[in-house]
Amino acid sequence: MFPPRQDVLRLMPEIILSLSGILLMLIEPFLSGARRTLIVTLAALGSGLALVSTIYPATLPGTAFSGLLRIDGFSVFVHVVVEAVAFLVIIGSADYLDREKIQHGEYYALVLFATVGMCVMAGAAELMTAFVGLETSSISTYILAGYRRDVPRSNESAMKYFLLGSFATAFFLYGIALLYGATGTTQLARMTFPTTPGRERLLDLGLGLMLVGLAFKIAAAPFQLWTPDVYEGAPTPVTALMASGPKAAAFALLLRILATVGAAGTFWFWALWVSAALTMFVGNLAAIAQSNVKRMLAYSSISHAGYILVALAAAAASDQVELGVAAVLYYLAVYALMKLGAFIFVSQLGGESERHMEIDDFRGLAVRQPVAAACFALFLLSLLGLPVTSGFLGKFYIFNAALASRLIWLAVLLAINTVIAAFYYLRVIVVMYMRQPNQTWPPAPMPWAVTFVLSIAAAGTFYLGLFPGRVMALATQAALSLPGR
Amino acid sequence: MSGNLAQAYAPLLIHLLVALGLSAILLILSSLIGQHRPTREKMQPYECGITPVGDAREPFDVKFYLVAMVFILFDVEAVFLYPWAYVFRELRWFGFTEMLLYILILLAGYVYLWKKGALDWNPSKTQRDRQT
Amino acid sequence: MPPSYLLTSVTFLPLAGTTALFMLRADDHEWIRRIALAISLFEFALSLQLLRGFALTSANYQFVEFRNWIPSPPIHYHLGIDGISLFLVLLTTFLTPIAILVSWKSIEQRVRAFFISLLVLETGTIGVFVSLDLFQFFLFWEVMLIPMYFLIGIWGHERRIYAAIKFILYTMLGSILMLVAMIWLYELSGSFDLPQIQSLLVSGQVALSFQTELLLFAAFFLAFAIKVPLFPLHTWLPDAHTEAPTAGSVILAGVLLKMGTYGMLRFCLPLFPEAAHRFAPYVAVLAIIGIIYGALVAMVQTDLKRLVAYSSVSHLGFVVLGLFAFDPTAVQGALYQMLNHGISTGALFVLVGMLYDRRHTHLIREFGGLASPMPMIASLFLFVSLASAGLPMLNGFVGEFLILAGTFARNVSWASSAAVGIILSAVYLLWAYQRVFFGDLIYEKNRTLADADRRECVVLLAMAVLILWMGIGSVSFTRRTEASARNVFVLMQRPQAYNARAILRSIEPLRSGGVR
């Protein structure tokens, strides 16, 4: 009368996330008055529990729900990343929402629903399931992007994200349809069968459309145009979520298709190569010109998508996908932490209605708030990829994968881009450390929740930068757990 | 296979063509044969026979959209019930519990809407305050 | 031999010491200075232990520590020193207390952060010299940029931010390509461990095609050449030196530039000998251009600190020339010159910094006739200048002599054109000396300038003694470096079969497209 017990256990994180989301949604209208603590605690508890409950899928690998989901090391890895991001974003948002006077239960419910979508994407073994996951996460983030209802920029952000995102999902869906037409199945694992003659074109077209749809989601050039506006307009904690969570999930889906469907590697390789090169340059060159730190970080996240694409191209080029896949996974974890830290810091420093986002507002911050400034500098250096920080090791593994697949020129382009990127990351550090403090406004003290999130992100950045062994072993294990072509 | 496809769908196509053709012919014929004596009253938009007041292009209250959206939401959800009903016997209790779960989740949404006052045509002042 | 943690302690002691500084109150400047000095002096004493246990005649790595670090790709924590790195480590530990002493009064803002940066920098530089794992080497190589960047950018002079950014961007450009080359080398050899790669190459188990070797050499060489800096890549150096605070300049000139030449000697020559031979003529020409160009530009400087900075370009040209002469004597000379330059140019920067502390300018025309108010500084300035210009009995002579002697054996015209640089260096140093210390006291405020106080005397005399000792007792240094200097040429040999295989491999097209 119920689905098999293992299936439910394998889906435990998603179930917990959904239930806590629904609960939060219902609590919101029923309670009034002092409910902030309750809501935040519930949300944090929900995401934390989900994170803990990932132990079930981790110990029970296999397929679930008639093969719609495939719970393996890979999906567990992405689950952990995405759930950790949700947990940290929820804690990091509370004070921001207070300041903006938009402290509602729905916000957290939407974050949780978005996370459910990402988790489903990570585990989907079948394209319609993947699509459902994609839509769940997308629609939730569309709303979140416009959560500051009274701010035109936020509305613009939500509108742009919605319109372009719908296009992207339409492309993706069309791709699924064509793949179904070509292979007669939406199960990824069964698409490995040789197709009937005359249908290869259809298969390629379907794969191409799916790549376009996902490229939108990961902000890969030439489909990155929406990113800066959307990231800048959205409430900053939401930007933190968008930059780390959905991106990781979309990359996970790309990887799974790449690793499972034999035709994808060959067909996508050059597209990935070109897109990687283009994305890195577009992101970095545009970031140099920015004077708004939030916008600069948005462009920087485009360029990071480019770095990850290098590893993806490496996975596509080689017969052994593990190296590339593990590099992507490691980078996703690293990137999620440092980007989240950077955005949460910016959200706190921005003050009421995000007034202080210009690079000049960061003047002399090192004198006023040495610890916070040091944290932010750490995230920037990590984004830049200097050693001892996790960003360096992430990049190191990408280089390693790229060179193992003999993508020497792509590796050189990545190296050049690192230097270009140094320019704008260091500029912020210069302003924080080497200029006189800004006298007109004193930055507010850090609330403990933000401090907590920042210290976790900073500790993670150091840990992943110095002792990558354990996490990298997990990433490699995850990469090996993919079914393979 | 394409032959089969054409055979299977041919009646549908013919039906479609006939319907389109007929309406087109009627429209064209009436405009060709009929007499045209436009007056002011005749050119006015038809609103249930009442004399129209003001411009039709006025902003609608957001409540209309809200109701429309809610309607579509719950209407579309109902679509899922049809295929379920079709295989209900084969799914047995499994299908029943699954659908129960589904409806419960829908119900949660409904309760949320209700308590939020989305179904209230004239929300009281306190509720309006709570919404903003 | 029982496992010793001496190298680990020497490397990380300064970093550990920073925690003591963190515990002090940020405005307790006096104690911050004292503790920092104590840490650096203790560090120096500790590093002297290396001399005691160092086996003279061995060319092998000593005090080796080997530990697993990252399982995949295999990266180890691998430390060790030989005759090449021994004195560079000692140079670093010697110059750091000096740098702390000269910043005693001149640094007044954010004192704690300053000394922390200096100590972190010390760990970084020592780490570079003792790392035997490519990955670990790169880690220290890059990490050391950050404290230097802050030293220049926060406590520097007027155009400090420009100089700091220029410094870091230049170095990063080179080093990131070196990282690519390192990983590529790993793909080819399956190891990040320098001794292991080296033995694989020497035994012929791994053979690089000539084309690959050229590319790898170029990537490594670019990183080191920027750091040295070799002639067309030197433009960051005058800015960085001039804008840095005195301590920054001392460390920058004394140690950081040596990392470039050290890298060439440690990686470029032994790992890629054929490419090194192919490139040697071009490198030598660039080095000679650097020697003469640096000297000529130094001559026309109006800024005393910039003059010293350009003299570095000239002196480091000698070192590079010595390395690419492929002669054990010249390599020994280059090693010796690296130490000389570290001490004498360091001392010059210290002296210039003392003048700056008193007058807050580096412009030569602001001085004149300083010999009478400050006899102590004047006489030591002369002493150091002469050492730097290569006067016999002082340290500079030994290094330059060895380099030229070795280079003569290989190429007479290289040696003779480089010799011009020695004459020029005497010209610009003595001319500058004359303008600063002799002549009339033009400015009234120069009349009352104080001579060196006790702290400054200690610093200067310590350096002067070392200069003299290195001039007279050079054997005590060279006998420790000799075995390693010769060993470089052993490592550069490749088995005979290598050539045939290299040709075969170069025929195989380079699969750079990556199509499966």
Structure description:
The complex is a heterotrimer of chains A (485), B (132) and C (516). With 485 residues, chain A is mainly α. Chain A has one domain (5-481). Helices cover 76% and strands 1% of the residues of chain A. Chain A has helices at 5-10, 12-30, 36-53, 55-59, 73-100, 105-123, 127-145, 152-183, 200-217, 226-233, 236-260, 262-288, 293-317, 322-349, 365-368, 370-384, 390-404, 408-434, 448-466, 469-481, and strands spanning 62-64, 69-71. Chain A has a two-stranded antiparallel sheet with strand order 1-2. In chain A, a hairpin with a 4-residue loop joins strand 1 (62-64) and strand 2. Chain A starts with a helix and ends with a helix. Chain B has helices spanning 2-33, 40-43, 62-79, 81-116, 125-131. Chain B starts with a helix and ends with a helix. Chain B contains five helices and no strands. Chain B has 132 residues and is an all-alpha fold. Chain B has one domain (2-131): Up-down Bundle (Methane Monooxygenase Hydroxylase, Chain G, domain 1). Chain C is 74% helix and 3% strand. Chain C contains 21 helices and two strands. Chain C has a two-stranded antiparallel sheet. In chain C, strand 1 and strand 2 (75-81) form a beta hairpin. The termini of chain C are far apart. Chains in contact: A-B, A-C. Chains A and C meet through helix 12, helix 13, helix 17, helix 18 and helix 20 of A and helix 5, helix 6 and helix 7 of C.
Q: Mean pLDDT of chain C, as a whole number?
A: 85
Portion of residues in helices of chain C? over 70%
Q: Oligomeric status of the shown chains?
A: heterotrimer
Return the domain count of chain B.
Answer: 1
Unreliable runs of chain B, pLDDT <50, ≥5 residues?
A: none
What is the gyration radius of chain B calculated from CA atoms? 25 Å
Bin the strand percentage of chain B: under 5%
Largest interface here, residues on each chain? A-C, 45 and 41 residues
N→C terminal distance of chain C: 50 Å
3D shape of chain C: globular
Question: Which CATH class of chain B?
Answer: Mainly Alpha
Number of distinct beta strands of chain C: 2
- The SS-based structural class of chain B is mainly alpha
Largest beta sheet of chain C: what is the strand line-up?
1-2
Number of DSSP strand runs of chain B: 0
Determine the N-to-C terminus distance of chain B. 59 Å
